[in-house]
Amino acid sequence: MAKRYTDEFRRDAVRMATTSGLTRPQLSSDLGGGLSTLNKWVQQHQHDDLMSGPHEDVEKENTRLRKEVRLLREEREVLKKAAIFFAGQSR
């Protein structure tokens, strides 16, 4: 008997197939489905807006990444100032 997948699972699989950088054989194996099934889903949904609708996990990840970027920028500024200070000390 064929497996039944939810529409949400199919959309997520297509999104991963088009954005993750994994090969389709690798992704289909990771998801526990067939390569031909994944290829069919990608073909059927290639023009869908896969990011529409509520994606709380994406919003949380964006918030986390914004914090990380802010921290990295602050660290970079401290390192720039330290480099300038120590370059002046060695003259």
Tags for this model:
91 residues, mainly alpha, Arc Repressor Mutant, subunit A, 2 domains, 4 helices, 73% helix
Overview of this protein structure:
The chain has 91 residues and is mostly helical. It has 2 domains: 53 residues, Orthogonal Bundle (Arc Repressor Mutant, subunit A); 37 residues. Helices cover 73% and strands 0% of the residues. The termini are far apart. The model has no long low-confidence stretch (mean pLDDT 85).
Strand content: under 5%
Structural class: mainly alpha
Profile the largest sheet: none
Order of helices and strands: HHHH
**Which shape, going by the Cα principal axes?**
elongated
As for the CATH topology of the largest domain, it is Arc Repressor Mutant, subunit A
List low-confidence stretches: none
Helix content: over 70%
Q: What is the CATH architecture annotation of the largest domain?
A: Orthogonal Bundle
Distance linking N and C termini? 78 Å
Q: Give the CATH class of the largest domain.
A: Mainly Alpha
Report the strand count: 0
Instruction: Please tally the helical runs, counting DSSP H or I stretches of 4 or more residues.
Output: 4
Number of domains: 2
Please give the radius of gyration in angstroms.
22 Å
Average predicted local confidence, pLDDT: 85
